[in-house]
Amino acid sequence: MKDPAIVATPRTRGGDSEKITINLGPVDLGQIDLLVEEGFYSNRTDLIRTAIRNQLALHAQVVQETVARRALVLGLQHFSRQDLEAVRAARERLNIQVLGLASIAADVSPELALATIESVVVLGAFQASPAVKAALAGRIR
Questions:
Q1: Which of 1, 22, 59, 116 is the most buried (most CB within 10 A)?
Q2: Based on the number of CB atoms within 10 Å of its own CB, is 16 exposed (0-12), middle (13-18) or buried (19 or more)?
Q3: Nearest Cα to Cα of residue 106 among 128, 135, 77
Q4: CA pair distance 122, 95, nearest whole angstrom
Q5: For the residues of 96-141, what is the DSSP string, one character each?
Q6: Is the backbone of residue 71 left (phi > 0), alpha (psi -120 to 50) or beta?
Q7: CA triplet 22, 57, 69: central angle to 5 degrees?
């Protein structure tokens, strides 16, 4: 379903971020600290983000081809209560597929989510109320 009220905005940088944890051996960590001390990077996070961006740039073609092949929304896709009520009124169901961030408004009830969302596949982050996430648990892959 194409609805202009459903927002898809590509994002590559910004204030919104997810925290990840990685385990490194002491030698790797020491080398990172050495590069920071020598002024190549401002801190450990700067080096790690730079390394990740370099790898993503190296594989950008594969990512773009896969996004197109799998019909993923790239960026941000937000669903408001009004969006989902329109889907329900049209007697349709959504298959949400996002590479980035998918979010469901806080005022969406679990019942409305269950009535309108067939499946959720998010490579990145999925934001919804705990009640909506619990209701959709069997539909989130």
A1: 116
A2: exposed
A3: 128
A4: 11
A5: EEEEEEEEE-TT--HHHHHHHEEEEEEEEEEE--HHHHHHTGGGB-
A6: left
A7: 100
For the entire predicted model, the pTM comes to 0.74
End-to-end CA distance of the chain: give it in Å, rounded: 20
Q: If you count them, how many residues does the chain have?
A: 141
Q: Retrieve residue 99's tokens.
A: 């590479």
What is the DSSP secondary structure assignment for residue 17, as one 8-state letter?
-
- Sequence ranges of the domains in the chain: 7-13+61-139, 26-59
| Structure-block tokens of residue 128 | 């919804």
